[in-house]
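Example record

One chain of 214 residues, shown exactly as stored in the release files.
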Amino acid sequence: MTTATTTTFENPFFARVWPVVAAHETAAVRALRRENLAGLSGRVLEVGAGIGTNFPNYPATVAQVVAVEPEPRLAARAQAAAAAASVPVVLTNETVEEFRGGAPFDAVVCSLVLCSVRDPAMVLRRLYELLRPGGELRYLEHVASAGLRGRLQRFADRTVWPRFLGNCHTHRNTERAIVDAGFEVDTSRREWTLPAWSPMPVSELLLGRARRPS
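Predicted C-alpha cells for this chain:
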C-alpha cells in the first residue's frame, strides 16, 4: 500500500543523477544496506528513501515501513518500488522536519541521508522524538575521514559536491551528532566501499546502531 502528501522539495538535477548512482552501487554498499536492515521488526520509519533502494531488503518481521521522500521525482520511483515490496510501505512527500508520525516507531532507518539535511542536529532530535523509548536508529552514512582524504572531503564540501549531489556533505561527524541528540550507540564500524586509493570523497561509510534510552 502506498500514499503520498502534497509537500515537496524540488531538486530536479539530483533526481536525474541519483537513480543512476543507486543503480551502480558497489557490491560492498549493497551488502551494507542489507546489514543495516537485518533483524528489524515492527513499525519502521525510513528517512530519505530516494528511489526505494532499501525496500526489497526489509525482513518479513517488519509490520510497516513509513518512507519519507520529499523530492517528487524520486518519490515517484520509490512509489513503484513500494508497490513491489514484500512488506507494506507507505510513502510520504513530507520532509522529516515536517513529518508527524502518529504512534512512536520501533526503528528509524537512515541510509546516506544525514549528510544531506540542512540541520543534522535538528533532524536527529526529531528522529529521537519519533522513536519509542528503547527504539533503534539504524544508520549507514558518509563519514568524515582523516588525513588526505579528510582534506579532500573538506575541499569537496566547500565547492561543487553539495551543489550537484543533493546537498551531500562528506566530512560531517555524523556519529557525534547522533550522540549529541541523546542516542546511545550500541555498535559502530567504518567500512571502505571503494579501494583506499580511490579519489572519491565518499569511499568510507559508517554503519551503526544506536538506541533511544528506555
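Notes: The longest strand covers residues 131-142.
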